[in-house]
Design the sequence.
């Protein structure tokens, strides 16, 4: 840790962009709360222009979109794209932070702050790498483009429209480096190539004009029981989704993809039980089934339920209204709108036509071809920056707009970055290791050098 801190403090260029990161984190750029987006985008525009990039800042939609280009003078130069986002999750009072979440704090070999891993720290690390390369070389051997959006934490609202607008200028790249990644618990750099998709929707039930005295509970159905029974009819006790046709469109995992997950995925039942202090049994007990479900199959989850009286004491009522927020994690082949319609139809078949569903957001899943030449190059380079080896995963269990980006740009996509298993993205004390931040700078610089 001491060596990492010394390297951080002794390199003026690294230190300069640490100060940039400090200011960037100070911007509370939260799409869900409609705050800080324009200011953050303009700050980034100035930073990239100062670094020598040609910058387009498009404010057509709610979250401004940034395209920054560092162009090579080589006539036959290939192109490398970095996808990032400047929006972050809230850091509200329900989270515990040791220090102010929007102040970058460096202590004990770690950097803390909202967005330091997801995803602002990756922006400054990659920008640092470009400038470090140019300290020793007169020009870049490859065109480098950044595309930076401001709504990733809200299902990348309007990203598809921005990509359609600029896809002709961005297509034909050799590789796209995704927003982030981690060093796993064994110290291996993870290189992954996919994300699950997501569908979110709200469910509403109204059973009467007013709450009813609960003495009628034996003869009158309530909104709460009706909704609970409706939701229960959509999933069995093992977690399988009981919706007709929902599994038919799935692109099944190949044996090679399963082998990669078996070899490199750092997910085991005992670890999950310890990390989260689980009080309920897992839905699956076999390791192979756990991995297949987590990485390659959809899941239906209830984010929250609201109904009835929650105050002090007792209120003997049958609630007239009940609602829930739900999500389906999608895998490649599944389309959000179609899945939503399938769920609506299933509820009617199950006898729950009184449940009103409202679609809120959706994006498709994607898996990379991990044998693409650009990705194989990244894997080869990573071997020199990860002493414990490299973990290659065809997808992650998380969600992001990777399908949207691939569909628009048709470019191989690989994700790697500065996080670790306890980076606490979206939680209190979000953090990265200083050593991993510096390693990412060095690896990106070497990736640039590989195009010489």
Sequence:
């Amino acid at each position: 840790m001491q060596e990492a801190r010394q390297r951080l403090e002794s390199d003026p260029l690294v230190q300069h962009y640490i100060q940039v990161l400090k200011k960037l984190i100070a911007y509370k750029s939260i799409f869900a709360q409609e705050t800080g987006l324009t200011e953050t985008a303009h700050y980034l525009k100035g930073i990239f222009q100062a670094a020598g990039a040609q910058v387009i800042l498009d404010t057509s939609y709610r979250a401004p979109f940034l395209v920054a280009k560092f162009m090579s003078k080589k006539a036959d130069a290939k192109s490398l794209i970095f996808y990032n986002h400047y929006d972050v999750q809230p850091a509200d009072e329900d989270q515990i932070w040791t220090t102010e979440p929007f102040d970058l704090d460096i202590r004990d070999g770690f950097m803390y702050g909202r967005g330091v891993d997801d995803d602002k720290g990756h922006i400054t690390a990659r920008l640092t790498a470009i400038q470090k390369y140019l300290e020793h070389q007169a020009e870049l051997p490859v065109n480098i483009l950044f595309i930076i959006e401001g709504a990733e934490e809200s299902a990348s609202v309007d990203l598809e429209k921005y990509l359609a607008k600029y896809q002709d200028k961005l297509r034909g790249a050799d590789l796209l480096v995704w927003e982030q990644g981690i060093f796993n618990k064994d110290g291996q750099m993870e290189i992954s190539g996919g994300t699950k998709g997501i569908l979110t929707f709200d469910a509403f039930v109204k059973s009467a004009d007013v709450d009813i005295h609960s003495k009628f509970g034996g003869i009158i159905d309530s909104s709460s029981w009706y909704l609970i029974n409706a939701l229960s009819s959509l999933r069995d006790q093992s977690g399988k989704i009981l919706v007709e046709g929902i599994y038919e469109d799935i692109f099944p995992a190949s044996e090679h993809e399963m082998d990669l997950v078996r070899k490199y995925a750092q997910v085991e039942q005992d670890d999950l039980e310890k990390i989260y202090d689980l009080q309920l049994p897992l839905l699956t007990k076999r390791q192979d089934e756990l991995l297949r479900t987590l990485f390659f199959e959809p899941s239906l989850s209830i984010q929250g339920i609201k109904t009835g009286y929650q105050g002090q004491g007792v209120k003997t009522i049958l609630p007239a209204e009940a609602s829930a927020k739900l999500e389906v994690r999608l895998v490649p082949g599944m389309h959000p709108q179609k899945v939503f319609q399938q769920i609506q139809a299933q509820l009617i078949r199950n006898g729950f036509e009184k449940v009103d569903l409202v679609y809120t957001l959706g994006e498709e899943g994607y898996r990379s071809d991990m044998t693409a030449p650009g990705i194989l190059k990244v894997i080869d380079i990573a071997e020199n920056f990860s002493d414990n080896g490299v973990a290659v995963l065809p997808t992650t269990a998380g969600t992001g707009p990777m399908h949207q980006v691939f569909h628009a740009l048709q470019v191989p996509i690989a994700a790697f970055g500065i996080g670790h298993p306890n980076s606490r993205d979206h939680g209190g004390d979000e953090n990265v290791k200083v050593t991993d931040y510096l390693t990412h700078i060095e690896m990106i610089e070497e990736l640039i050098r590989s195009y010489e």
About this structure: The radius of gyration is 24 Å.
